[in-house]
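Record type: ASSEMBLY
Status: queued
Input:
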Amino acid sequence: MFGFHLDYFICCVISVSGVLIMASSYRRSSQSFANYIVGSGLVVLAALLFFLTDDRALNDYEGGLDANEQAVLFSTGSLTALLLHKGFVALKRRLELF
Amino acid sequence: MGNLFDLLIDLDRNLFFLINSKAGIHESIDSLLVIVAGDYLVPVMLSLGLIFLWFHETAEYQAMEVRKRVLIAICSLLGSCLLVMIINELFFRERPFNLPEAKLIFYAPTDSSFPSNSTAAMFGLSIPILKTRMRVGMMMLLASMCLAICRVYVGVHFPGDVIGGVLVALLSFCITILLFKVIDKQLTDALVLFEKSKWVKVFRL
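Status: finished
Output:
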């Protein structure tokens, strides 16, 4: 899609967002089923996006990611997803007020 | 003693060929198993499992217990990687794809084959979860086993490397548990502080 590093980062953000939606739906069980479907759908979508758009079986010196890069990109992706989730929830609450 | 070692090496090779001989027959199965054996699918799925465990618990005392386990899992993973790095400095084993009859359907790593780094890391991440969340832990362990078998199938590890990786993960887990027992009170206090602090509100759902 956009280069290995950015692809990995984007897919991490999408999949972590899915997991956060599932985790928060568990906490507020009233609307859990739909949230579970959306959350797991996002995780599957991220995996499909990542693996179907390019060849990912690459060594780190041939364009793949080494363990350190993976750790950094996954953590920043998770943090981004968390901030997006918080922002989205805050926006939703604000809209419900009006 | 030397005979026993030779016998084990022979057994390891035979087992490798038994699994690796199935590679290259069905293209679709190969491409699926290459993805499972890769550096991305299983590690990311297990990390997502940890994120889910960290955020999903509602009861405070259970959340504390689960979060401690998540921290133990992360430290156990780091410990496994460190132990593998130390063993690699002391010992080098050729990759199985260098054998004439072996099939390689993955990229060719250049580091030591023994112990399997990815297996050690993934088992290091999965084993600590078994105690507090048996079902999730079993799923994570199953995913790690799939990764381990696929690494042999694609031709980058001997079965012995994978078993070595599991043993390294167990050792790392034991060391981590011992360390966490020493700092248990401080860790509990830190987690309580984390839960109550307004500054880290962003890290809670």
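Annotation: Helices of chain A lie at 4-27, 32-52, 67-97.
Annotation: Residues 3-97 of chain A form one domain.
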